[in-house]
Amino acid sequence: DAGITQSPRHKVTETGTPVTLRCHQTENHRYMYWYRQDPGHGLRLIHYSYGVKDTDKGEVSDGYSVSRSKTEDFLLTLESATSSQTSVYFCAISDMRIGNEKLFFGSGTQLSVL
Amino acid sequence: AQKVTQAQTEISVVEKEDVTLDCVYETRDTTYYLFWYKQPPSGELVFLIRRNSFDEQNEISGRYSWNFQKSTSSFNFTITASQVVDSAVYFCALYQTGANSKLTFGKGITLSVRP
Question: What count of Cα atoms within 13 Å lies in the side-chain half-sphere of residue B94?
Fold first, then answer.
């Protein structure tokens, strides 16, 4: 299994509070992604990174920010959590080298915003 | 823009039946990759297969097989002689290559296999 760890695994927070989710990898992969999974929507891309300090928005980036100061860590921040951000969040990594193109996913973070 | 459509939302079969999960994609890229992932009730996402746009060979892995047809932009997944352990949500996904690579998922198909 790819070395990818998400923390925390579960979090309950209140509306309006800031929340940071962490994704840590030990594979030295270039690409890292944050997805959210909601019933009826599948997985939707929030933000992704293609290198240290290189990030870009996905399809559902409003209300989220990210940072990647080191290859191994990709942080997702909800500046002021809302109930609509209650979801399961998955981090993924890939190197997409020729012949090895695949994404590996973390175990997910269940976030509940009350 | 790229898009993945999994028109089936829920499928229920009896054990040992064959079942096909459909996936249709849209992309303007000539080079791309297609994936299937399985998400069992435990929640993790399990990689099943990757296919690049230049390889239209069908693939079989045990009870699983995949039919890739560029002419219809489809990448369908068949489970032969289904088992209860196949019960899961299955996602098809399209990977866009280039500097800003990203994976776009379909909404998933919930497969229930009854004993």
Answer: 26
DSSP-based three-state secondary structure for A48? strand
B9-27 pLDDT, tens digit per residue, is 999 999 999 999 999 999 9
Asked if B45 lies within 8 A of A90 by C-beta distance, the reply is yes
For tokens 């909404």, name the residue.
Answer: B107
Report the C-alpha gap between A31 and B99 in whole angstroms. 10
Sequence-separated (6 or more) residues with CB below 8 Å from residue A31? A48, A49, A50, A93, A94, A95, A96, B101
pLDDT above 60: residue A114: yes
For chain B positions 49-88, those within 8 Å of chain A (CB to CB) are 50, 52
Q: Using one digit for the tens of pLDDT, what is the confidence trace for B69-100?
A: 999 999 999 999 999 999 999 999 998 877 66
Whether residue B59 contacts residue B34, with contact meaning beta carbons closer than 8 Å, is answered with no
Q: Does B5 touch chain A (CB under 8 A)?
A: no
Q: Is B11 in the A-facing interface, judged by CB distances under 8 Å? A: no
Question: Could you report how far apart the first and last alpha carbons of chain B are, in Å?
Answer: 41
In the block, residue with structure tokens 């559902």: A60
Q: How far is A47 from A59, CA to CA, in rounded Å? A: 8
For A42-68, how does the pLDDT look when each residue is reduced to its tens digit (9 = 90+)? Answer: 899 999 998 999 999 999 999 999 999
Q: Kindly report the backbone phi and psi dihedral angles of residue B73, in degrees, each rounded to the nearest multiple of 5, phi listed first.
A: 50, 50
Element housing A5 (H / E): strand A4-7
